[in-house]
UniProtKB/TrEMBL annotation:
Cofactor comment text: Binds 2 magnesium ions per subunit.
Alphabetized UniProt keyword annotations: Carbohydrate metabolism, Cytoplasm, Isomerase, Magnesium, Metal-binding, Xylose metabolism
Identification of the protein by name: Xylose isomerase
Known catalytic reactions: alpha-D-xylose = alpha-D-xylulofuranose
Provenance organism: Treponema bryantii
Family: Belongs to the xylose isomerase family.
Superkingdom assignment: Bacteria
Length: 440
């Protein structure tokens, strides 16, 4: 196997005072935090599509990065070279998982899905051969049902029964490859499951068809031995004007409406949260309190731009509050996939490594500080005190569902006016977070 990243050493932990660009400052996989190793809290994954495929092309210009890895793109030789490069990349960073779409792994044949499926069989055999004896595994797989022109009106939501069959065929094959590679999860991202205008859309039919496709996927996945979670990855818009999986709350409601909530959880992406005008923490919290926090796409958006920029995460505030929710949930069934891409001018192999080092350090520091917030107790203690009126008396009766509207109204009439609900002390609590983040 050729070495693709010859000038880049094994990346090791050196501590926060290190200035070595090829070292972790905060990600120490052996460090124990709240009873688990950091590597267990943070099962990082490489995104096949961005890291091995994205070359910096955008709507205004051609690619700036060479991701050919010595082979001609669009060939199976190139597909295998990406496997070799990806494994070397993960080994040098100590990353144990990867995520993929079907057409990330192999070039899609434009005329025959059977040819594409044979290529998927070949490349998955190659991946198993090359990862044998390593600790590198598949985190999750998915089918790209948004890129091909046939999906211009959606996949599960398409108006064409023929296109629907192709969507089902891709899901079936992607599930088979996920099981073959030992994947822990399978993701549905509804890239074009939505609409541009209601003037030409039957929303009820489309949503019912999407749910039916998901039910068939669950049935087939379980029949071939898939024991992991299925995930929905919410996104409010882009490429469609309105997407049906707008945010975590919308997606959870959809799953419950159609009886899919026992098999599905959320795969939350930070940048998608911001596009929905939510914080990353909000989407994680809503997923957590509903028992549906499954996996995370670790990135961030650019706050001055209104589209999905997929920056590598560097905002420690966001990472800390995200890890606070993950710790409260007891961890993830999935992992932290870097659905992030280098900026267009950051076009070297070295830049790929710098981005992952920074992203892994960001979440490692976020984990450390989130654990300190929990162990410090001031935030949780304040929240507990804020709602203490529900721990006894009429409040406890409300929580235990042992009262009536008449009893509550009679109590209000007797009191004439309520007691002061108390200050929310937002600024004080934000100061507590600052204190914990920046103390030595």
């Amino acid at each position: 196997m050729s070495e693709f990243f010859k000038n880049i050493p094994q990346i090791k932990f050196e501590g926060k005072d290190s200035k070595n660009p090829w070292a972790f400052k905060y990600y120490n996989p052996e460090l124990t935090i709240m009873g688990k190793k950091m590597s267990e809290h943070l099962p990082f994954a490489m995104a096949w599509w961005h890291n091995l495929g994205a070359n910096g092309v955008d709507m205004f210009g051609s690619g700036t990065a060479d991701k050919s890895f010595g082979q001609t793109p669009g060939t199976m030789e190139h597909a295998k070279a990406k496997v070799d490069a990806g494994i070397e990349f993960m080994k040098k960073l100590g990353i144990k998982y990867y995520c993929w779409h079907d057409v990330d792994l192999v070039p899609e044949d434009p005329n025959d899905i059977n040819v594409t499926n044979k290529r998927l069989d070949e490349i998955s055999d190659y991946i198993l051969e090359k990862t044998k004896g390593t600790d590198i595994k598949c985190l999750w797989g998915t089918a790209n049902m948004f890129g091909n022109p046939r999906f211009m009106n959606g996949a599960g939501s398409t108006n064409s029964a023929d296109v629907y069959c192709f969507a089902a065929a891709q899901v079936k094959k992607a599930l088979e490859i996920t099981v073959k590679l030992g994947g822990r999860g399978y993701v549905f991202w509804g890239g074009r499951e939505g609409y541009e205008t209601l003037l030409n859309t039957d929303v009820k039919l489309e949503q019912e068809n999407i749910a039916n496709l998901m039910h068939m996927a669950v049935d087939y996945g379980r029949s071939i031995g898939f024991k992991g979670d299925f995930y929905i990855e919410p996104k409010p818009k882009e490429p469609m004007s309105h997407q049906y999986d707008f945010d975590a709350a919308t997606a959870i409601g959809f799953l419950r409406q159609y009886g899919l909530d026992k098999d599905f959880k959320m795969n939350i992406e930070a940048n998608h949260a911001s596009l929905a005008n939510h914080t990353f923490q909000h989407e994680l919290c809503i997923s957590r309190i509903n028992g549906m926090l499954g996996s995370v796409d670790a990135n961030q958006g650019n706050p001055i731009l209104g589209w999905d920029t997929d920056n590598f995460p560097w905002n420690v505030y966001d990472a800390t509050l995200a890890m606070y929710e993950v710790l409260k949930a007891g961890g993830l069934t999935g992992g932290f996939n870097f659905d992030s891409k280098n900026r267009r001018p950051s076009n070297t192999f070295e830049d790929m490594f710098h981005a992952y080092i920074m992203g892994m350090d960001t979440f490692a520091l976020g984990l450390i500080k989130a654990a300190e917030i929990i162990e410090d107790g001031r935030i949780d203690g304040f929240i507990k005190e804020k709602y203490s009126s529900y721990e006894s008396g009429i409040g406890k009766k409300i929580r235990d569902k042992q009262t009536t509207l008449e009893e509550l109204a009679a109590r209000a009439a007797e009191m004439k006016k309520p007691s002061d609900p108390g200050s929310g002390r937002e600024e004080y609590l934000e100061g507590v977070v600052n204190n914990i983040l920046f103390r030595g």
